[in-house]
């Protein structure tokens, strides 16, 4: 538990659009994407509460209605929530400035699209450290973040890799892999990255005012400005932290969130079905005969699974999902109200809310080059991303690394080889 936890507030910055996660953020902010069947923001709130912080301010903007309707005043989550709107998304430091009037003492700042655990946050509150502290972690993909250099455990420098402007109309692996080609390499003295999780005092708002027009209006620019001003900023190292920069990062998050899953069977498991490892089955769900489920797997409420279906580790299945016979699913996120017809194969993929899959659907895998994999943080093999309310016809096969937009209709027996924009119809 944290020291002074009852006096320290938390600020969660969750106003941005999440363009690089499109189409999954077409109708929600990144923080509302479900990981292990709970929004990312809910995992953050749970970590804060476990660390002793219950007074939480959320800076919202894009698609704020879904956040407000889900969390309300925080009472259902045993925390106190206050919402502040950032009308125009002008950067994370600008978002932080919106809450100045609500903060009279020390506070912690967190992005709304990170996966963290309470132990990481508790380190921010230990006695004997500097009032300004940031969480850093060693990363194999430092080009995605601000790289920090330490001296005597103080942050002395932040390096940010220059990047070309991004066109939000391109959201698939083809565009993402292009990023890896044009991201310039810089000589680094560290593989530690800045997570944007910070402990601060109200004095930081003076620095925010001073840096206007000098630094970029984001948290990395703010910390860089404070370093240049001679402020000592303590580094708090962690081993558990994940960020959703690209859609494929969600599979890492999901796997990490499921690692602590405990078995819980509230639905019906028919005779002949076999559950192995940690599996959670929600109310009203039926696991039919001859199904094989190997955890960690979470299955929500009101689902109908099987018969003769196989679900393998690191898979999350939301509420009101139908998985028909002779289907195999592994290392995937299946959101609410998805229907998968018989004989389908889904691996290393994300199916968003309301996706309808005809019989014998297959999501194929692409193997990622080792150098790009290490630089961009992708798994060795990736499947596909399918947006909300898309319909896949009988026998559709989707190449690995392809992103299908929201509201699409893919006709029967189509081989989808490249990204499909929102609202498209693809015919054979």
Largest sheet: 9 strands, parallel
Which second-level CATH architecture of the largest domain applies?
Answer: Alpha-Beta Complex
Classify the helix fraction into a percent range: 10-25%
User: How many domain units?
Assistant: 2
Note the gap between the termini.
58 Å
Strand content: 25-35%
Q: How many whole angstroms does the radius of gyration measure?
A: 22 Å
Q: Which structural class should the secondary elements be placed in?
A: alpha/beta
Indicate the low-confidence ranges by residue numbers.
Answer: 1-6, 162-188, 369-378
What is the level 1 CATH name of the largest domain? Alpha Beta
How many strands? 40
Return the average pLDDT rounded to an integer: 84
Q: Which topology of the largest domain does CATH recognise?
A: Spore Coat Polysaccharide Biosynthesis Protein SpsA, Chain A
The coarse overall form would be elongated
Number of helices: 9
| Main sheet strand line-up | 15-18-21-24-27-30-35-38-40
Q: What name goes with the CATH superfamily of the largest domain?
A: Spore Coat Polysaccharide Biosynthesis Protein SpsA, Chain A
Structure report:
- The structure is a single chain.
- The chain is α/β, with parallel strands linked by helices.
- It has two domains: 9-246, Alpha-Beta Complex (Spore Coat Polysaccharide Biosynthesis Protein SpsA, Chain A), CATH 3.90.550.10; 261-426, 3 Solenoid (UDP N-Acetylglucosamine Acyltransferase, domain 1).
- Helices cover 18% and strands 29% of the residues.
- The chain has nine helices and 40 strands.
- A nine-stranded parallel β-sheet has the order 15-18-21-24-27-30-35-38-40, with no helix packed on it. An eight-stranded parallel β-sheet has the order 14-17-20-23-26-29-34-37, with helices on one face.
- The model is unreliable at 1-6, 162-188 and 369-378 (pLDDT under 50).
């Amino acid at each position: 538990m944290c020291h002074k936890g009852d006096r320290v507030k938390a600020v969660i910055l969750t106003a941005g659009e999440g363009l690089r996660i499109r189409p999954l953020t077409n109708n929600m902010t990144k923080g509302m994407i479900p990981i292990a069947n709970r929004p990312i923001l809910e995992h953050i709130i749970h970590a804060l509460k476990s660390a002793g912080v219950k007074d939480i301010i959320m800076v919202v903007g894009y698609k704020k209605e879904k956040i407000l309707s889900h969390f309300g005043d925080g009472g259902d989550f045993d925390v106190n929530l206050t919402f502040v709107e950032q009308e125009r998304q002008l950067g994370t430091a600008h978002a932080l400035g919106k809450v100045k009037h609500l903060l009279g003492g020390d506070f912690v700042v967190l992005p709304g699209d990170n996966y963290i655990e309470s132990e990481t946050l508790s380190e921010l509150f230990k006695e004997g450290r500097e009032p300004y502290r940031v969480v850093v972690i060693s990363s194999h993909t430092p080009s995605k973040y601000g790289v920090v250099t330490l001296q005597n455990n103080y942050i002395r420098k932040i390096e940010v890799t220059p990047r070309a402007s991004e066109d939000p109309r391109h959201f698939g692996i083809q565009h993402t892999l292009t990023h890896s080609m044009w991201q310039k390499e810089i000589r680094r003295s560290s593989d530690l990255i800045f997570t944007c999780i910070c402990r601060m005092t109200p004095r930081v708002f003076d620095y925010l005012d001073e840096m206007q027009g000098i630094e970029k209006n984001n948290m990395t620019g703010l910390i860089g400005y404070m370093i240049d001003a001679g402020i000592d900023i303590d580094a708090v190292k962690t081993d558990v932290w994940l960020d959703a920069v690209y859609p494929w990062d969600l599979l890492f998050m999901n796997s990490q969130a499921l690692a602590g899953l405990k078995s819980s069977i509230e639905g019906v498991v028919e005779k002949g079905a076999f559950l192995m490892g940690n599996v959670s089955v929600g109310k009203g769900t039926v696991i039919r005969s001859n199904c094989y489920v190997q955890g960690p797997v979470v299955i929500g409420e009101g689902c109908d699974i099987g018969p003769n279906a196989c679900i393998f580790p690191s898979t999350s299945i939301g509420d009101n999902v139908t998985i028909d016979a002779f289907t195999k699913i592994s290392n995937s996120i299946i959101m609410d109200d998805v229907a998968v017809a018989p004989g389908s194969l889904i691996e290393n993929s994300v199916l968003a809310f309301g996706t309808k899959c005809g019989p014998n659907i297959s999501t194929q895998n692409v193997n990622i080059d080792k150098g790009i994999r290490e630089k961009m943080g992708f798994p060795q093999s990736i499947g596909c991303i399918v947006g909300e309310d898309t319909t896949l016809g009988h026998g559709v096969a989707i190449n690995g690394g392809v992103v299908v937009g929201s509201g699409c209709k893919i006709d029967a027996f189509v081989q989808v080889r490249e990204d499909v924009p929102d609202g498209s119809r693809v015919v054979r």
